[in-house]
Amino acid sequence: MDNMSITNTPTSNDACLSIVHSLMCHRQGGESETFAKRAIESLVKKLKEKKDELDSLITAITTNGAHPSKCVTIQRTLDGRLQVAGRKGFPHVIYARLWRWPDLHKNELKHVKYCQYAFDLKCDSVCVNPYHYERVVSPGIDLSGLTLQSNGNTWSINQNTIKRYTVKRSAPTPAPIPPYLSSIKYDGEG
């Protein structure tokens, strides 16, 4: 009886298809099933000869990062990107989207301090363990005190409008009434 049938979690000794199937069960959506399957198959094949790294990936993904895991590395390409199903992307971003944050932007990742092969360290190998990265959202630019002017209208932003993501328009200064109109009388005026 193999390990897969006892624990329902594969190991690096199991067939690639079993490993891919198990890892597919943990994807977060966002990408099509076809793309996800091709990306996972590609990664599992690259790691098949690196059993300890494949086991680290399986542990990281099947436990949602609850257990510490080692770097899971693939060879860095010349342009740093990986092609899967005709689409190119940064490998650490592709796998972080698959298993953690489907709406992730490529600039929102920062490696954890113990990751030795993080993408931005520019090593020959790149860590694609999604639990070796944290999502960081860039702090907003302080727009308080900003004033925009256009065609005599003034728009200003203050701390309250920033919190609500809206901009309030200042009331325009009324134009002076021309002298030739000031003498006009309206119905009902004496």
UniProtKB/TrEMBL annotation:
Spell out the coiled coil positions from the record: 37-64
A biological process (GO) of this protein is: regulation of DNA-templated transcription
What are the subcellular locations of this protein? Cytoplasm; Nucleus
Question: Which one of the record's GO molecular function terms can you name?
Answer: metal ion binding
Question: Where does the MH1 domain lie?
Answer: 18-142
Q: Which GO terms describe its cellular component?
A: cytoplasm; nucleus; transcription regulator complex
Membrane-crossing segments per the record:
none
Q: Which UniProt keywords apply?
A: Coiled coil, Cytoplasm, DNA-binding, Metal-binding, Nucleus, Transcription, Transcription regulation, Zinc
* UniProt xrefs under Pfam families: MH1
So what family is this one in? Belongs to the dwarfin/SMAD family.
The molecule here is called SMAD family member 4
- Which species is this record about? Homo sapiens
Name of the gene this protein is made from: SMAD4
